[in-house]
Automatic annotation (TrEMBL):
Belongs to the MurCDEF family. MurE subfamily. The gene is murE. Keywords: ATP-binding, Cell cycle, Cell division, Cell shape, Cell wall biogenesis/degradation, Cytoplasm, Ligase, Magnesium, Nucleotide-binding, Peptidoglycan synthesis. This is UDP-N-acetylmuramoyl-L-alanyl-D-glutamate--2,6-diaminopimelate ligase. GO terms for cellular component: cytoplasm. Catalyzes the addition of meso-diaminopimelic acid to the nucleotide precursor UDP-N-acetylmuramoyl-L-alanyl-D-glutamate (UMAG) in the biosynthesis of bacterial cell-wall peptidoglycan. Carboxylation is probably crucial for Mg(2+) binding and, consequently, for the gamma-phosphate positioning of ATP. InterPro entries: Mur-like_cat_sf, Mur_ligase_C, Mur_ligase_C_dom_sf, Mur_ligase_cen, Mur_ligase_N, MurE/MurF_N, UDP-N-AcMur-Glu-dNH2Pim_ligase. A motif (Meso-diaminopimelate recognition motif) lies at residues 403-406. It comes from Chryseolinea soli. The keyword Iron-sulfur does not apply. Residues 110-306 form the Mur ligase central domain.
Length: 487
């Protein structure tokens, strides 16, 4: 337990009423989780306003309330604290409550539209290989050294986040690598955290369902860099036209990586094949297991961050060359099969384009590229026709299917995708709402040496339909079909 005044340290208060020295037994922003002696933080969310649940929180035993606006009825046995931004206050309070764990590790954040998971995962694997006890906070999974903690969001809420960081500190972690989503920045989920470094991979069309405009999306990413401290580093992709924008107002030390421009960490692609990448990096030619131009950027980001974190170049390159990428990111299923099958998380137009252009580099010309792709429900609708357009332009055959339809009708999502299919491309397009049947059909259409891309879900082991997550794994379906093919 901690005193209320201690866990409000660095929170900008506008007023307070009651006993500020009272002990707090727990913190929460979900009124359903309140217990006796808890502090309840009323946060205005995208779905509901925590201010509407202050009375319920008090009924359940809350002894103190943090809010932006006092309720009409005041209970003189309760301590009330008002703030300008309760979401931001929640982050700072959570950090204080858990003893500011981010200050006890070297916390490095990775943001960008594509590549976050691969970069964060590679950094985690690299630092483990270099002998540093490390933690990972990612879309795929959270890891405390080798312990796996299931992941529900790209960036957890502030209480979950600080609780995980605290567990990492207690387990002896010295470094933590974390994906930082634009939603997390905008919703102040990372408020109160101390970052030693921040990486920017790229920014392309995504999340306009939430941010409404591309400009707002850029601002959310940039806000992360604007708030870095002067003793942190900021490392950005200079080949992305908005990479240097991220550095404009940051107090952090500025660094860049890329393949095309004069940068601090430059690479050159020597060989790019289905087996891997050979890069000139750090003055040496090194072979990596990852595939494609986009992974050359990911590897440069990891290399640059490792050097900025104090590691030695040759050792970094040696360890990095032996690592595999994140699950479900350009993942070859049953390598060596008569048909090449790739599962990838590509769920944005740019990511899908990158993957298909990478596949095009490996083609001899005789084989077909068959793409299975869908779009998620309750998400940015404007990218749906773009995804179908790119798939059709860069594939020989396309099967439009469901992704995670969530609360939407799968066929309606597919109809919106079809708006991006040119009349000349209709003949090479199939529609199959059942994702398993779509994958099976693509496999049955394939001949020896053909390439199948299953895009959109990557590492996910479920399909979300009408609020229920059904077990489903693209890789398992593809592998089952490929085994039939081999026989």
């Amino acid at each position: 337990m901690r005193e209320l005044k201690d866990i409000l340290y660095k929170v900008s208060l506008t007023s307070s009423y009651g006993n500020m020295s009272g002990e707090v037994k727990g913190i929460c922003f979900d009124s359903r989780k309140v217990q006796a002696g808890f502090l309840f933080i009323a946060v205005r969310g995208t779905q509901s306003d925590g201010h509407a649940y202050i009375a319920k929180a008090i009924d359940l035993g809350a002894s103190a309330i943090v809010c932006e606006q006092l309720p009409d009825s005041i209970n003189d046995k309760i301590t009330y604290v008002t703030v300008k931004n309760s979401a931001q206050a929640l982050g700072i309070i959570a950090s204080n409550y858990y003893g500011n764990p981010s200050e006890k590790v070297k916390l490095t954040g990775v943001t960008g539209t594509n590549g976050k998971t691969t970069v964060a995962t590679l950094l985690y694997k690299l630092f483990i290989a270099l002998g540093h006890p490390s933690g990972l906070l990612s879309t795929v999974e959270n890891k405390i050294m080798k312990e796996v903690v299931p992941s529900t969001h790209t960036t957890p809420d502030p209480i979950q986040l600080n609780e995980l960081l605290d567990r990492m500190v207690k387990a002896g972690c010295t470094h933590v690598f974390m994906e930082v989503s634009s939603h997390a920045v905008d919703q102040e989920r990372i408020a109160g955290l101390k970052f030693v470094g921040a990486l920017f991979t790229n920014i392309t069309h995504d999340h306009l369902d939430y941010h409404k405009t591309f400009e707002n999306y850029i601002k959310a990413k940039k806000k992360y860099f604007d708030e870095l401290s002067s003793d942190a580093f900021a490392l950005v992709n200079a080949d992305d036209k908005r990479g240097m924008v991220m550095l404009q107002n940051t107090k952090a030390s500025k660094y860049s990586f890329g393949l095309k421009k004069m940068v601090d960490f430059k690479g050159k692609i020597i060989t790019n094949s289905i087996e891997g990448l050979e890069l000139e990096i750090g003055g040496k030619n090194v072979w990596f297991r990852l595939i494609g131009d986009f992974n050359a950027y990911n590897l440069l980001a990891v290399y640059g961050a490792a050097i900025l974190l104090g590691e030695e170049s040759d050792e970094v390159l040696t360890k990095l060359s032996s690592l595999e990428g994140a699950v479900g990111r350009f993942e070859l299923v049953m390598p060596g099969s008569k048909v090449t099958a790739i599962v990838d998380y590509a769920h944005t137009p740019d990511a899908l384009k990158n993957v298909l252009e990478t596949i095009a580099q490996f083609r001899t010309g005789a084989e077909q590229v068959i793409t299975v792709v869908g779009c998620g429900g309750n998400r940015d609708k404007t990218k749906r026709p773009l995804m179908a357009s790119i798939a059709c332009r860069l594939s020989d055959k396309v099967v439009l299917t469901s992704d995670n339809p969530r609360d939407e009708d799968a066929m309606e999502i597919i109809r919106e995708m079809q708006a991006g299919v040119m009349p000349t491309e209709v003949r090479k397009t199939l529609v199959m709402a059942d994702r398993e049947e779509a994958i099976k059909t693509a496999c049955m259409m394939a001949k020896e040496h053909d390439i199948i891309l299953i895009a959109g879900k990557g590492h996910e082991t479920y399909q979300e339909i009408k609020g229920i997550k059904y077990p489903f794994d693209d890789r398992e379906v593809v592998e089952r079909m490929l085994k039939l093919f081999e026989n």
